[in-house]
């Protein structure tokens, strides 16, 4: 009967031009049968024979509509319908039945392509046949040894084969996870059928009829089926494993472009992917969004005068997809926004670019900021975290990125303030800091590898020399600032520091100011070489006297260093220590 | 086990609050008078828009046009006692269902009781977009993919809510200078925005992010930035009758709907609501709203605007960016495509 139907229709069928290759397609259809019918038409009109499997869950009406839509086409058979559940053996069973039927009804088929109803052929079917004819004995099936971990995305590798999976992951996830954990706990290891080494790969393949027949007619098929029935996602391992047993030569790749996201869901293709898909030279792509009408109208491309034999080059589209996966998993460093708000220390980049913090320099050199701005190819700000205003370079009221110079707005979210500033500006950011400023970012900056912190401890004391405040106020201010600086030093001396930190004591710095200053300019984007002049230094007269008075009033301004030319009062300390 | 780890009290409180809101919405069924009910047109899988408005007649043609093109299948409007012909205009539209009320906006939790009521009755099982007439949704690929592509993808990814931060748009120069013409694109006039001055903190109870900033905060709320308007919104939700908006569309219950952001460093997909509030129509509106005192925190916002606007201030500054497209917003980090390639 098979032969008769073939003879009856054989004369009217389009025949593949490419030599000995006659393509057959197994089409697995689940939902959107209207789109699937369209795909079936593309395959048949391209010269392929098609066996269609429709999920038993599809409604009788939509199936009838599909059959109706395809009734004018020869070379299509519908196989027995199975209920297909994701990740279960039913998908393999459906493929087996449809493939069997295809081979029985169309014995002239030399290659069988497995596709789904939402797989869109991008290039003419004739090109695919011509490409297969280049090496007619080759099986195109991605098949990776399961022991080489890392093929699967967000799933199990070897355990797919060594445990039992009688449950549906989508419908009974909780039980599924419990059962898996229980089997692990019990140390269950299924024994593989002899002679099989488990392989995984894309479920979309193209096998030669010889290989496929060998798989379907294998005398041990019952044994293999029994084994795979309780593995997990057998549609990604059944043919991939058995092809290794029977194939002569395997080209381990899939001719279908199918990428998965980090959760193992297939990417959808839309109208705006058209150009990239065309450039990819892939034969088939999945999965097309059913309403992507332009894409469906654009592909497959009409055949050229000569069959195009170029192999698929999906690298560009794969790069795009890998980039979006990276963005979903890692995000852009230093970005805090409505859909990315990392927990502390899970930031994957606290800030987006390197920046420098200078503490104490503007106290020693009053014109330090302007001097530095003249030297560097960078934005040199004043005290961004200062108490009076946000001292942006040039002191505008609205800084880069429309960030307000209002301190209340800044202090509402200092992290957001700093990270937004660094991200929105194109040049390196440099700013001044002191114990007078908002200290809430100390931990954040200290643990940020992008930060470069230069500190001269105790320098905050110098401006007090010129103040005409009463000594009691000076003492109070000193106490406050010193406490702030001690707390900051605790942070900078902790083991968690990731920033590059240079701490100098004031006395050390004052001993060799030029050398120290030049040292701190290293790693900064100098405009034209090291500076010729030094900025003006503050008059230090009276410092020793002030320090002595502060000490005598009960403070201990030790962060300024001990070597100031002051009266020697280390003796009582020693006594205390003893 | 620490007391903070005991899961019940917070969850129970949330649950009680949600149930209270649902009952409250149910009770508001009599406050809404049906003017034109075309909800029998709604088909399975349709995308619905829910809008409360008062005297927005001049904005409506462009608004409806914009969302029809985006792929909204049906609009459900609550007309809060407009007297400028908004009601008549809407009743004539073939894809609009209209309700009318004269109940107090403030006493109805700024309109959310009405919207929750309509969402409960008509939104169940649909993707629902809850917006104001001056809010225009932008999402990654919105120039080439309709809203249905987004909702299909969200469905496939197992997500039920999609965030879209409010982005205040303003013209260059005084707001009154360029009059807004009916039916035109408001972003031809108000096409500037603040790129990077947004502050974020997490609301530990509801789990949503609280975003503030933008031109309103830097111009009108310098003395009290915490009182500035919230910009975080979750306007697109696959509704279930048990859900409820808590405060405007800023947050929802149950709390998992507020988890629209990644806390491990990754980016989830998000969009923007371009806010066309600052047009020539704004000064009149703020004077009117000031008289009615029906807005949040005793119309503090409108007081501040009105004071600010009378002084002739404009919101533009040299750091403002001119709006180009969604890619620009994505590069600036205001929205993200997440893994929607």
Automatic annotation (TrEMBL), chain A:
MF annotations from Gene Ontology: metal ion binding; protein xylosyltransferase activity
Q: Which coarse location class describes where this protein primarily resides?
A: endoplasmic reticulum
Q: Which domain of life is it from?
A: Bacteria
Q: Which GO BP terms, alphabetically?
A: chondroitin sulfate proteoglycan biosynthetic process; heparan sulfate proteoglycan biosynthetic process
> What is the protein's given name?
Peptide O-xylosyltransferase
Q: Which InterPro entries match?
A: DUF5927, Glyco_trans_14, XYLT
Domain DUF5927: where? Answer: 286-563
Species of origin reads Paracoccus hibiscisoli
Pfam families registered for this protein in UniProt: Branch, DUF5927
Its record classes its membrane topology as: Single-pass type II membrane protein
**Which keywords are on file for this protein?**
Disulfide bond, Endoplasmic reticulum, Glycoprotein, Glycosyltransferase, Golgi apparatus, Membrane, Metal-binding, Signal-anchor, Transferase, Transmembrane, Transmembrane helix
The terms describing its cellular component in GO are: membrane
**Record keywords: Cell inner membrane included?**
no
Localization, per the record, is: Endoplasmic reticulum membrane; Golgi apparatus membrane
Q: Would the keyword Acetylation turn up in this protein's UniProt record?
A: no
From TrEMBL, chain B:
The superkingdom of the source organism is Bacteria
Q: Name one GO molecular function term.
A: transferase activity
Question: Which key words tag this protein in UniProt?
Answer: Transferase
Q: Name one Pfam family in it.
A: Glyco_tranf_2_4
Task: State the name under which the record lists this protein.
Answer: Glycosyltransferase family 2 protein
């Amino acid at each position: 009967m098979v032969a008769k139907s073939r003879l009856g229709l054989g004369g009217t069928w389009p025949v593949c031009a490419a030599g000995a290759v006659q393509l057959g397609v197994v089409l697995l259809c689940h939902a959107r049968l209207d789109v699937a019918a369209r795909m079936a038409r593309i395959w048949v009109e391209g010269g392929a024979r098609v066996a269609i499997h429709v999920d038993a869950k599809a409604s009788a009406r939509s199936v009838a509509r599909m059959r109706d839509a395809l009734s004018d086409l020869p070379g299509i058979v519908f196989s027995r319908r199975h209920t297909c559940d994701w990740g279960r053996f039913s998908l393999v069973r459906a493929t087996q039945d449809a493939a069997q039927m295809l081979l029985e009804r169309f014995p002239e088929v030399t290659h069988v392509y497995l596709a789904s109803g939402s797989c869109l052929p991008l290039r003419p079917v004739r090109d695919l046949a011509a490409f297969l004819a280049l090496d007619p004995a080759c099986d195109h099936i991605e098949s990776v040894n399961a022991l080489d971990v890392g093929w699967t995305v967000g799933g199990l590798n070897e355990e797919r084969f060594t445990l039992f999976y009688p449950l549906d992951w989508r419908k009974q996830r909780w039980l599924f996870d419990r059962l898996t954990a229980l089997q692990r706990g019990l140390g269950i290891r299924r024994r593989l059928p002899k002679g099989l080494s488990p392989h995984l790969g894309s479920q979309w393949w193209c096998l030669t009829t010889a290989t496929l027949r060998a798989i379907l007619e294998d005398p041990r098929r019952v044994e293999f089926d029994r084994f795979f029935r309780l593995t997990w996602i057998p549609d990604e391992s059944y043919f991939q494993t058995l092809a290794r047993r029977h194939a002569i030569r395997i080209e381990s790749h899939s001719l279908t472009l199918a990428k998965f996201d980090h959760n193992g869901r297939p990417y959808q293709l839309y109208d705006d992917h058209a150009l990239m898909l065309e450039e990819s030279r892939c034969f088939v792509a999945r999965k097309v969004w059913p309403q992507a009408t332009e894409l469906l109208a654009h592909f497959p491309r009409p055949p050229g005068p000569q069959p195009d034999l170029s192999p698929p080059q999906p690298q560009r589209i794969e790069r795009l997809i890998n980039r979006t996966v990276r963005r979903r998993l890692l995000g852009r460093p230093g970005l805090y926004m409505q859909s990315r708000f990392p927990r502390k220390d899970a930031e994957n980049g606290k800030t987006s670019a390197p920046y420098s913090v200078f503490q104490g320099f503007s106290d020693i050199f009053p014109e330090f900021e302007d001097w530095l701005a003249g030297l560097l190819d960078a934005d040199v700000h004043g005290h961004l975290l200062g108490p009076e205003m946000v001292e942006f370079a040039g002191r505008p009221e609205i800084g880069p990125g429309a960030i307000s110079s209002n301190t209340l707005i800044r202090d509402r979210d200092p992290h957001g303030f700093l990270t937004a500033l660094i991200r929105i500006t194109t040049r390196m950011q440099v700013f001044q800091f002191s114990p007078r400023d908002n200290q809430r970012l100390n931990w954040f900056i200290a643990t940020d590898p992008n930060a470069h912190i230069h500190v001269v401890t105790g320098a905050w004391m110098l401006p007090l020399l010129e103040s005409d405040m009463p000594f009691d106020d000076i003492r109070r201010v000193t106490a406050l600032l010193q406490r702030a600086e001690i707390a900051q030093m605790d942070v900078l001396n902790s083991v968690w520091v990731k920033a590059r930190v240079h701490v100098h004591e004031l006395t050390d710095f004052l001993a060799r100011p030029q050398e120290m200053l030049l040292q701190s300019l290293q790693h900064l984007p100098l405009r034209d070489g090291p500076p010729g002049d030094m900025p003006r230094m503050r008059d230090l007269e009276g410092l020793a006297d002030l320090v002595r008075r502060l000490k005598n009033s009960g403070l201990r301004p030790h962060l300024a260093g001990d070597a100031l030319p002051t009266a020697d009062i280390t003796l009582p300390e020693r006594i205390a220590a003893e | 086990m620490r007391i903070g780890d005991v899961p019940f009290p917070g969850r129970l409180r949330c649950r009680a609050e949600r149930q209270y809101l649902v009952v409250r919405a149910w009770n508001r069924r009599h406050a809404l008078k049906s003017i034109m009910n075309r909800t029998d047109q709604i088909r399975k899988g349709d995308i619905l828009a829910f809008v409360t408005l008062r005297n927005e007649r001049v904005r409506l043609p462009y608004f409806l046009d914009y969302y029809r093109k985006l792929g909204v299948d049906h609009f459900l409007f609550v007309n809060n006692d407009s007297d400028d012909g908004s009601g008549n205009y809407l009743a004539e539209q073939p894809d609009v269902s209209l309700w009318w009320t004269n109940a107090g906006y403030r006493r109805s939790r700024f309109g959310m009781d009405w919207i929750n009521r309509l969402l409960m009755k008509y939104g169940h099982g649909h993707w629902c977009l809850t917006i104001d007439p001056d809010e225009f949704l932008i999402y990654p690929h919105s120039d080439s993919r309709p809203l249905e592509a987004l909702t299909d993808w969200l469905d496939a990814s197992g997500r039920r809510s999609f965030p879209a931060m409010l982005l205040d748009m303003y013209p260059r120069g005084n707001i009154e200078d360029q009059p807004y013409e009916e039916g035109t694109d408001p972003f031809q006039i108000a096409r500037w925005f603040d790129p990077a001055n947004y502050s974020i903190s997490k609301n530990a109870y509801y789990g949503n992010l609280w975003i503030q900033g933008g031109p309103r905060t830097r111009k009108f709320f310098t003395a009290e930035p915490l009182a500035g308007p919230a910009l975080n919104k979750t306007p697109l939700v696959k509704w279930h009758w048990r859900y409820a908006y808590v405060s405007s569309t800023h947050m929802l219950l149950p709390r998992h709907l507020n988890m629209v952001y990644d806390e491990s460093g990754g980016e989830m997909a998000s969009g923007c609501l371009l806010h066309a509030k600052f047009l020539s129509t704004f000064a009149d509106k703020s004077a009117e709203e000031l008289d009615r005192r029906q807005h949040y925190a005793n119309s503090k916002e409108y007081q501040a605007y009105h004071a600010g606007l009378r002084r002739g201030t404009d919101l533009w500054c040299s750091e403002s960016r001119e709006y180009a497209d969604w890619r620009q917003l994505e590069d600036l980090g205001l929205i993200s495509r997440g893994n929607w390639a």
